[in-house]
Structure formats: C-alpha cells, structure tokens
Design goal:
A six-stranded mixed sheet has the order 2-1-3-4-5-6, with helices on one face. The chain is of the alpha/beta class. Strand 5 and strand 6 form a beta hairpin. The protein starts with a strand and ends in a 19-residue tail after the last helix. It has one domain. It is about 35% helix and about 15% strand.
Length: about 160
C-alpha cells in the first residue's frame, strides 16, 4: 500500500505513519518533494492516481468540487476521508484502528473510490457520479444499501446498486 497524506490531514500524520509504514508521502515532505506545500488539489490528484496511491484526507470538498471530483474519477484515485474535528492524536488512533481495512480496500477495491470514515470508525462509500453537493451527498449516502456502510475489512464487495 502506497499512502499519500494531503495537506489538510497534516504532515504530522505523514511523519507518524512513516515510522510504521515505509511507503508514505505527504505534501511538502522534503525540500525535494514532488508536491510542494500549498499545491492545489488539482496538482497532486493526478500524481497520486498515476502512482496508485491511497489518499488520506480531511478535505471532503474534493468530491464536491466538480473539477476535483472529475480528476478523482479520471485518474482513478482511491481516497478515504477522515473527520476534520479530530485532533492529531485522535486522527492517528482512528487511522491505525482502520489500518487493516485501509490495506484491504487498497488491494481489493476497484478505483476510483471514495469513503468517509466517521469518528467512530464506520466507513461509508461516497458516490462519485454527478453533482455531489453536501445535501445531495447525504441523501445518496442515506439511500445506499445498508450493507455498504458496514464494510468489513476482508469482505468488501463493489457497490453495483447504481
């Protein structure tokens, strides 16, 4: 699994994950980094898609802004969103709690995909087709089959419910 930690998630998460997982990059991780601090999402999304990286982000707007969502789809990006309100330690604990699931979706799930993980660790698939405003995203999530939010680490099935 190759991880990419975006700037909204924070370099401290990238640094901490680097201690336990060797294949981690984050925005501005060195002065020679390919993705500089302050880089727009439109710059790094194609890079992570091309390199098959799994993105850890707190910026749910990526699936709400049409140009960014289109890049997620066209570049076949796999992305997992985590809650914005968690402090660094809580976020790191949540990521480590979901580690086996992250490894599993990275290897099994067809790209593109987007999931939102709640503060309690419950993943929910986010739709990537069409317009995805906050209100319509909530309605689409609510209409997904009840089996989708309860994704198990080793029993992930593609969502073919349309």
């Amino acid at each position: 699994m190759k991880l990419f930690v975006d700037e909204d998630t924070g370099s401290s998460i990238g640094i901490a994950l680097k201690q336990v997982w060797t294949d981690v990059e984050w925005v501005g991780n060195s002065k020679h980094s390919r993705i500089k601090l302050g880089a727009k999402d439109e710059v790094w999304l194609p890079f992570v898609g091309t390199n098959g990286m799994l993105v850890l982000s707190r910026n749910i707007n990526i699936v709400e802004v049409e140009t960014q969502r289109d890049l997620v789809v066209s570049k076949k990006v796999g992305i997992v969103f985590f809650p914005q309100h968690l402090n660094k330690l809580e976020l790191l604990r949540l990521i480590l709690k979901k580690w086996d699931w992250l490894v599993s979706i990275d290897s099994i799930e067809a790209r593109p995909f987007a999931f939102l993980v709640s503060a309690f660790g419950r993943p929910t698939r986010l739709p990537l087709e069409g317009s995805v405003s906050r209100l319509s995203r909530r309605r689409k999530i609510a209409s997904l089959p009840s089996s989708v939010p309860a994704v198990k680490a080793m029993a992930i099935q593609p969502n073919n419910s349309g």
